[in-house]
Design goal:
Helix content: over 70%
Oligomer: single chain
Strand content: under 5%
Distance between the termini: 22 Å
Number of strands: 0
Order of helices and strands: HHHHHH
Length: 141
């Protein structure tokens, strides 16, 4: 069971962390995971006996692993975005005014670090709000 989860989580983690650098990998990973699900279904139907049903309370530690991966992917995506911006002062509306108020050059490294922390905290707050608003447990369970 652990190997089955790992076979799904590993490609998903690469897509979450590096999908912004190579977007063509995302549909390929989707196709690979869809094919993998179908092959597991065929394996369970044709070559294995029906397993004895055991009620599970969840997916165990994998839920925590996926949660950590989602936070790391936010940090990675924001970092890649800020690293690729050359002229933050003109690209982001209102940022030049903020940089001027803080007396830092609007296109210097300090401005990039400031913009990274602003975006990172914004997206982390959005993720926390989404996690709070959407329950992990459905009404049927």
């Amino acid at each position: 069971e652990r190997a089955d989860y790992l076979q799904v989580v590993l490609p998903l983690s690469f897509v979450m962390l590096f999908g912004t650098m190579m977007p063509t990998v995302v549909p390929l990973a989707y196709l690979a995971l869809a094919f993998q699900i179908r092959t597991h279904a065929v394996k369970l139907i044709r070559s294995c006996r029906r397993p004895f049903p055991v009620r599970a309370g969840g997916i165990g530690v994998w839920d925590n692993i996926l949660s950590v991966l989602s936070y790391l992917s936010i940090l990675n995506a924001v970092g890649l975005l800020v690293a690729q911006l050359d002229d933050i002062g003109t690209t982001v509306p209102g940022f030049a005014t903020l940089a001027q108020a803080l007396e830092i050059p609007k296109n210097g490294p300090a401005a990039k670090v400031l913009y990274f922390f602003i975006l990172q905290n914004t997206f982390m707050a959005l993720k926390l709000a989404f996690d709070f608003a959407v329950s992990d447990i459905t009404a049927a369970t």
